[in-house]
Amino acid sequence: MPRIAFVGDFIDAGSGVKVPDDGAVLTRIRHLIEQGGAIGVMGNHELNAILYHRVDGNGLPLRMRSKKNTRQHRSFINQFGVARREALEWTEWFLASLPFWRELDSVRLVHACWSDNANGMIAGRRPDGYLQLEDLEEIASESTLFGRAVKTLVSGVEVKLPDDIRFTDFSGHKRREVRIAWWPNHVRTWRGAALSVPDPLELPDSQLPAIRNPSNL
Q1: pLDDT(5) > 70
Q2: In degrees rounded to 5, what are phi and psi of residue 48?
Q3: Whole-angstrom Cα distance, residue 154 to residue 112?
Q4: Which of 20, 52, 61, 210 lies 20 to 30 angstroms, CA to CA, from 13?
């Protein structure tokens, strides 16, 4: 029985890690999983990497290789390059070894948000929660229920802020959408429910709009 559970974001730690070593982290995690000592699920960093290093039918990257996206993915690129053999091999391992969720006897694992509806939407096509290559273009577009369900599980519940409100994320980017707590929470103001906001005072302390129970999204 595995004794360790990894919940994703094994790569691209960002400014919080002074000398990131994605290769060492991945090698250690892979060894533990393949030896049966650990289990894992996919995070948005792994999914973004899968898309970044692959192209669509027109030869365009499934994840835009913009300055922002490249900067966020820099520690992985520095070790494995862009769409080179090692980068593709590692992202293939993500696909083959990391489902979006795991449901055990006494615990549920997911990276960002447990949603019965989103899980069910994905399970209708992929009962085991593992993606296939043919799913990637749909996921990249986020234009279908399946694609949006994937985004919910790995990125959480995001809500557009009121007009003219922005906040600065941990990478220095201005954002108009904010992640909110999806678990039962009596705090329902923008400032109180927001997640991953460096300075909550940038957000209004006014009431959130009515939102369906996020766990049922």
Answers
A1: yes
A2: -60, -40
A3: 5
A4: 61
